[in-house]
Design a protein that fits this description.
The complex is a heterodimer of chains A (411) and B (413). Chain A is an alpha/beta fold. Helices cover 46% and strands 13% of the residues of chain A. Chain A has 16 helices and 13 strands. In chain A, the strands form 4 sheets. In chain A, strands 2-10-9-8-7-3-4 form a 7-stranded mixed sheet, with helices on both faces. A two-stranded parallel ribbon of chain A has the order 1-12. In chain A, strand 3, helix 6 and strand 4 form a beta-alpha-beta unit. In chain A, helix 5 crosses helix 11 and helix 15 crosses helix 16. Chain B is α/β, with parallel strands linked by helices and 413 residues long. Chain B has a 7-stranded mixed sheet. In chain B, strands 1-12 form a two-stranded parallel sheet. A two-stranded antiparallel sheet of chain B has the order 5-6. In chain B, helix 8 runs parallel beside helix 10. Classes of the chains: A alpha/beta (411), B alpha/beta (413). At the A-B interface, helix 2, helix 5, helix 6, helix 11 and helix 12 of A face helix 2, helix 5, helix 6, helix 11 and helix 12 of B. Chain B: Its cofactor is pyridoxal 5'-phosphate. Chain B: Belongs to the class-I pyridoxal-phosphate-dependent aminotransferase family. Chain B: Its EC number is 2.6.1.1. Chain B: It is found in: Mitochondrion matrix. Chain B: Keywords: Aminotransferase, Mitochondrion, Pyridoxal phosphate, Transferase.
Chain lengths: 411, 413
């Protein structure tokens, strides 16, 4: 007697985690992990931000704090300060009381909540046929988040031009023009994952014009604010521009990378609505979705972020920590490009310094990627995506030489 | 359905014009209403969160110690695996199934870390919805935790019920339950509360559990245990897990949700586990791979903080011992409050039979109060509870039990 669970097939493992596993098992002392998207110091170590350590001590010392449930939508001081980070302190939308937020489990959780809400309430009720557009390529989990929320039609919009190694603006605008009305578009606020290629301001303005005219829904994914340029405001330019253009929109924020709080699952779904009445009703329905998914969000990470953002000296220190991370990435970009140029590696390598954020789309093809992994023990995604944070002053020569050897020997 | 006006730059026009205002959550909404009340005598008997005898939240001493130990280790904040912290999930399974359980030894369970009990139930519901395609019906006891129904429904399952609570006795309707269970179609999912039934506080006795296990086996049902109060019911971890362990012994391959919100006071840290007992280790691997596929598009991987605290407590002998003592203490305070409440009701002159208040077990008491009486209690006395007459005994203190008895007597005399 064994009821139930027959026919549960083995699922294929998530690629990025398999890569990390394979790296772990590799015995080559020269191995380099350019896979998973987490910051590393120049010693190749994870980095708990100094400001985070400070705030953790504050929390431990505060006997008035306990482990009680947060409200369904999360910690209020976290939600409001997180939204301010995205939209700017003096955002007119905030002043007009039409900005709200849901504290979620990381950026993924924020995307999930937004997706579930849209499926239930956008473009009709439970309209699972509304097309959801994600960039080609995009973070692989985008597809699953929206599909699992019930959307039947998740499709790519043109984004990356492999030949010129940059943004396919015409393709992007073309897809915006031909998308069915009310389609949902998932836009990367900055530091596009995996390509590291962002639209310029002028290009964003063109995107916004089409989206407004064609009544398309704006859903920003902001996982790297601060991490791209080192400046929070600069990295939020696109999000804020769209707000000035009057869009009602969602912005899924992650504090995994810019706070280094990966495993505390700190995210925020910022909602910009037409007015406070619409906002109120939206939030009330968000509560229903939260309640059947996780009831209420975890408190530790949100507390950390809230205390930091709401305490001037800590806020300043955080911005500094963020700049430290962004600067190291910029340094590695410059370094890698310089070395490849010095080696006279075939091809152009400007894209390495033109791209922004944690990732770089090297342009290596799958065969070349396989060579890098098998012959050089350098682990990167099949797409040719590398995590710049995996580079250090100690391994960058080996990586540059390896890329050179790979490009020369493998076509 | 969508209006043709465009949201941008046209005042008043919104994507969300048709979005209705959602009603307040029937359980969590009670606390929110309580917070707004300015009456100094107000009592919150709504949500199941433990309070000490001063009515204050209680951070367990073993939790504080674990936190100090963890802080000293200076750990990093790297992502956990999708299935969570290994030290936690192993200990979580052992706690439920017992250290020497054959299931764990043979590796035929898969236990993943979840976002407390709700997250565990949701993952379970999603898993059954996707893979238990033989039957779409989940049978809940009547009544059950209010959030069970929307969780399973949202996951695409259908909800049915089996008789459980007897309002005449304020106890367990054993025959009624057996009757209903005997008619449940084969392969349906049956939800059982492992201990400290929520909301009634009414648990089957061991002999009754044995008969239920037998009948469930005959009916070939898939058992989903919800264990949110291990330790809280009797004060004894093993006693509270008896039913779960018995069913497994009898050959049921159950699925199990666990929460550490109450028994470790880790409410807001969201610590829970979901276990599937499989037929062998190979099946467990397949199931694990599919659970990961379900989890990733919801939140990628679970939060570290609470799981780390729980793991530290469960895996450090003197902290574990201290924890057992504290859980026992919390359970005892609740038992004392039950006795005090009944004594005070008698003192008020109530002639009703309040024996069930003492017979029921765990955090909650199903008072037997009707919605109108509950409403009066809230409006006239600022005593907050859920509409079904459920009160959280954890919210009762020696300081407020007199007032509570007054109120209950006033609306029931």
């Amino acid at each position: 007697f064994v009821p139930g669970l027959f026919n549960v097939p083995q699922a294929t493992p998530v690629a990025v985690f398999k890569l990390s596993n394979d790296f772990k098992e590799d015995a080559n002392p020269k191995k380099v992990n350019l896979g998973v998207g987490a910051y590393r110091t120049d010693e190749g170590q994870p980095w708990v931000l100094p400001v985070v350590k400070k705030v953790e001590k504050i929390i431990v010392a505060d006997n008035s704090l306990n482990h009680e449930y947060l409200a369904i939508l999360g910690l209020p001081e976290f939600r409001s300060s997180a939204s301010k980070i995205a939209l700017g302190e003096d955002s007119p939308a905030i002043q007009e009381n039409r900005v709200g937020a849901v504290q979620c489990l990381g950026g993924t959780g924020a995307l999930k909540m937004g997706a579930e809400f849209l499926r239930r309430w956008y473009n009709g009720n439970d309209n699972t046929k509304t097309p959801v557009y994600v960039s080609a390529p995009t973070w692989e989990n985008h597809n699953a988040v929206f599909a699992n929320a019930g959307f039947e039609d998740v499709r790519p919009y043109k984004y990356w031009d492999a030949e010129k190694r940059g943004l396919d603006l015409d393709g992007f605008l073309g897809d915006l023009e031909s998308a069915p009305k009310h389609s949902i578009f998932v836009l990367h606020a900055c530091a596009h994952n995996p390509t590291g290629t962002d639209p310029t301001h002028v290009e964003w303005m063109q995107v916004a014009e089409v989206m407004k005219r064609r009544k398309l829904f704006v859903f920003f994914d902001s996982a790297y604010q601060g991490f791209a340029s080192g400046c929070l405001d600069k990295d939020a330019w696109a999000v804020r521009y769209f707000v000035t253009q009057g869009f009602e929109m969602f912005c899924a924020q992650s504090f995994s990378k810019n706070f280094g709080l990966y495993n505390e699952r700190v995210g925020n779904l910022t909602i910009v609505a037409r007015d406070s009445d619409n906002l109120k009703r939206v939030l009330s329905q968000m509560e229903k979705i939260v309640r059947v998914t996780w009831s209420n969000p975890p408190s530790q990470g949100a507390r950390l972020v809230a205390i930091t953002l709401n305490t001037p000296e800590l806020f300043a220190e955080w911005k500094d920590n963020v700049k430290t991370m962004a600067d190291r990435v910029l340094l590695m970009r410059a370094s890698l490009q310089a070395k490849l140029q010095a080696l006279e590696t075939p091809g152009t390598w400007d894209h390495i310094t033109q791209q922004i954020g944690m990732f770089s789309f090297t342009g290596l093809n799958p065969k070349q990627v396989e060579y890098m992994i098998k012959e050089r023990s350098i682990y990167l995604m099949a797409s040719g995506r590398i995590n710049m944070c995996g580079l250090t002053t100690k391994n960058i020569d080996y990586v540059a030489e390896s890329i050179h050897e790979t490009v020369v020997n493998v076509q | 359905m969508i209006t043709e006006c465009h949201p941008c730059n046209i005042s008043g026009c919104s994507w969300w014009s048709e979005v209705q205002m959602g009603p307040p959550d029937p359980i969590l909404g009670v606390s929110e209403a309580y917070k707004r009340d300015t009456n100094p005598k107000k009592i919150n008997l709504g949500v199941g969160a433990y309070r000490d005898d001063q009515g204050k939240p209680y951070v367990l001493s073993c939790v504080r110690k674990a936190e100090a130990q963890i802080a000293a280790k200076k750990l990093d904040k790297e992502y956990l695996a999708i299935g969570g912290l290994g030290d936690f999930t192993k200990a979580c399974a052992k706690l439920a199934l017992g250290d020497d359980n054959e299931v764990i030894k043979s590796g035929r369970n898969i236990t993943v870390q979840t976002i407390s009990g709700t997250g565990s139930l949701r993952i379970g519901a999603n898993f059954l919805s996707r893979f238990h395609t033989e039957a779409r019906d989940v049978y809940l006891p009547k009544p059950s935790w209010g959030n069970h129904t929307p969780i399973f429904r949202d996951a695409g399952m259908q909800l049915k019920a089996y008789t459980y609570y007897d309002p005449k006795t304020c106890g367990f309707d054993f025959q009624g339950a057996l009757n209903d269970i005997s008619k449940i179609p084969e392969k349906s999912v049956i939800m059982l509360h492992a201990c400290a039934h929520n909301p009634t506080g009414v648990d089957p006795r061991p002999e009754q559990w044995k008969e239920i296990a037998d009948l469930v086996k005959k009916r070939n049902l898939l058992v989903f245990f919800d264990m949110a109060y291990q330790g809280f019911a009797s004060g004894d971890i093993d006693r509270d897990a008896w039913a779960v362990r018995y069913f497994i012994e009898q050959g049921h391959n159950i699925v199990l949700s666990q929460s550490f919100a109450k028994n470790m006071g880790l409410y807001g840290e969201r610590v829970g586990g979901f276990t599937v007992v499989c037929k062998d280790a190979e099946e467990a691997k397949r199931v694990e791979s599919q659970l990961k596929i379900l989890i990733r598009p919801i939140y990628s991987n679970p939060p570290m903080n609470g799981a780390r605290i729980a793991a530290t407590i469960l895996n450090t002998p003197d902290l574990y011992k201290e924890w057992l003592g504290e859980v026992h203490g919390m359970a005892n305070r609740i038992i004392t409050m039950r006795e005090l409440l009944v004594a005070n009701l008698k003192k008020e002159g109530s002639t009703r039979n309040w024996k069930h208040v003492i017979d029921q077990i765990g955090m909650f008491c199903f008072t037997g109060l009707k919605p109108e009486q509950v409403e009066r209690l809230t409006k006239e006395f600022s005593i907050y509870m859920t509409k079904d007459g459920r009160i959280s005994m954890a919210g009762v203190t020696s300081g407020n039990v007199g007032y509570l008895a007054q109120g209950i007597h006033a609306v029931t005399k």
